[in-house]
Amino acid sequence: MAGKPQYSDAEILWFVKQVFEYKIKNEDLVCQGFKERFGRELKSHQHKYLKGRYGRDPAFK
Q1: 1 lies in a domain?
Q2: Which residue, 23, 26, 34, 51, could crosslink 42 as a Cys pair with Cβ 3.0–4.6 Å?
Q3: Would you say the C-alpha torsion 18, 28, 8, 12 has a positive or negative sign?
């Protein structure tokens, strides 16, 4: 469905904390943690998208 958010605020906040607050550089480690926490896969291209899209978003800082 067009316009439907793919990620919940909780997923985005968790991701942003892992990458920017805790400074986890290992993409595989973040993707594995995402799957364990939320029960769905986070692929490499999705990791890059989230990092670029929400990395500077003040709503998630």
Answers
A1: no
A2: 34
A3: positive
Lowest-confidence pick of 20-24, 31-35, 56-60: 56-60
- 22-53 exposure pattern, b = at least 16 Cβ within 10 A, e = fewer: eeeeeeeebbebbeeeeeeebeeeebeebbee
Query: What's the domain range around 36?
Result: 9-60
pLDDT digits (tens, 9 = 90+) for 30-56: 999 999 999 999 999 999 999 999 998
Alpha-carbon dihedral 30, 36, 41, 45, rounded to 10 degrees: -10
pLDDT for 2 = 63
What is the number of domains present in the chain?
A: 1
What letter would DSSP give residue 53? Answer: H
